[in-house]
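FAQ

Q: What does a record look like?
A: Structure on top, sequence underneath. For example:
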């Protein structure tokens, strides 16, 4: 006979854990170092940083509320594509997927999260996916993992969208 009981385990909100990580983690140029470290861990052969001071039209946004993110941006470009475990790591704030991988530099599970020192909603393109992280659920609510929104597009549509 199985004992009965209530489900009892920690359920810390994603944003509360992020706040603690940011309080314990330095800001400033550390953000660039973490992006470079992640690029190295992914075996990228290049890493490019671009500080884009342009402001872009907001007439093609998914949601009008995203307009505030159309201003200056830090672009980080490398030669590798995210693997499925990389997406999993984004949702596990303090449980790094790299801990058992001896060829990886970052093993603490917090490095990428230093990006939240400079933005509330980072986004990136990898392969055929456009990914928007929305930990506050300000723009995308609902679903099992609403913190991470993945939009999958055929590459030609994605390229045309970015160039228009």
């Amino acid at each position: 006979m199985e004992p009965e009981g209530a489900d009892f385990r920690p359920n810390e909100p994603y944003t509360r854990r992020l706040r603690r990580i940011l309080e314990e983690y330095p800001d400033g140029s550390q953000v660039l170092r973490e992006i470079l470290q992640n690029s190295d861990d992914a075996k990228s052969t290049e890493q490019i940083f671009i500080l884009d001071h342009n402001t872009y039209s907001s007439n093609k946004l998914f949601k009008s509320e995203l307009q505030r993110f159309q201003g200056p941006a830090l672009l980080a470009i490398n030669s590798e594509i995210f693997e499925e475990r990389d997406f999993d790591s984004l949702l596990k704030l303090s449980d790094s997927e790299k801990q058992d991988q001896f060829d990886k530099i970052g093993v603490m599970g917090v490095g990428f999260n230093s990006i939240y020192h400079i933005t509330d909603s980072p986004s990136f393109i990898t392969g055929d996916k456009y990914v928007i992280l929305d930990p506050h659920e300000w723009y995308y609510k609902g679903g099992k993992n609403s913190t991470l929104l993945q939009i999958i597009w055929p590459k030609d549509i994605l390229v045309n969208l970015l160039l228009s």
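Q: Is there anything notable about this one?
A: Helices lie at 14-24, 30-41, 84-91, 155-163.
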